[in-house]
Amino acid sequence: MLIQQFEVLPELQSYVKLICTMDCDNGTDTNHIRVLPDTCVELFLNYTSTPLAIIGNELYDRSIVTSRMSRYSDVQMRKGAGCIAICFYPGAAYRFFNLPMHLLADRILVLSDLWNSMAGEIESKLADAFSHNERSAIVQKYLLQELTRNEHDQQIAHCLEKIRRSAGHIHVSQLSSDTGISQRHLSRKFQQIVGLSPKEFLRVCRFIRSLDHLKKYPLLSLTEVAYESAYYDQAHFNRDYKFFTGHTPGQVALASHILY
Fold it and tell me: How far is it, in rounded angstroms, from Cα 181 to Cα 139?
């Protein structure tokens, strides 16, 4: 599969983490890949007449929106498929889609169910484009158009920045105190804008941090990875890996079909 990354417009850089095209050759479907949770919402716009991918046991023909908040996905792109992928930062997709994000969490929705006729309009323009650079420009123009859909929430943005700076080492009570709102109200706002409660989000962030340690420091023991990732004990570490990946930490470290 050929992947090409594109520069994100300055006006979108606070919201869009990555834009890239993905082209699968005509010879064969890709191998099955297990993609792990990353708390991000991703948009996949199909610019071919070929079905896009098999995710789980379901075939998706057209453009989709996915959200791997706390579940892994098994993905196989179809031969000849081509799409442009947009990955949003945590909490940022809310600005572009007119629904509470907890309704999208750990689900896959067909884009036409969210953007109605505009989904088909975008697909047609992408199919007619002469280059991937043109496709990137088309997609970003539509994103700018949709950016005004929902207002920016300063309190949630502050919490997400605090979580990022602390690498997830912060308590929900501290976030509640910093924002001046109750934990219950903060949880409701998190689910609406991010897709998970603060407690659930912090749990996934801790897991993602451990994956980063697993990749960057292969000589560390799994016990050391758990400690450096702020797990209370090895049992919690193992339990989270089984839940988020379907495998033990040791199996994840050695597996070639798991993407993280």
Answer: 37
Rounded to whole angstroms, the Cα distance separating 198 from 184 reads: 10
Cα(91)–Cα(15) distance, integer angstroms: 8
pTM confidence score: 0.91
Determine the straight-line distance between the first and last CA of the chain, rounded to whole angstroms.
17
Encoding tokens for residue 104? 């999208």
Question: What's the one-letter identity of residue 97?
Answer: F
Domains of the chain, first to last = 2-149 (2.60.120.10), 154-259 (1.10.10.60)
pLDDT digits (tens, 9 = 90+) for 26-53: 878 888 899 999 999 999 999 999 999 9
| Strand pairing category for 16-23 and 2-6 | antiparallel
| pLDDT score of 228 | 87
Give me the long-range contacts of 224-228 (CB less than 8 A, separation at least 24). 225/249
Distance CA 220, CA 225 (A): 6
> Are 205 and 39 a contacting pair, CB within 8 Å?
yes
**DSSP tag of 52:** -
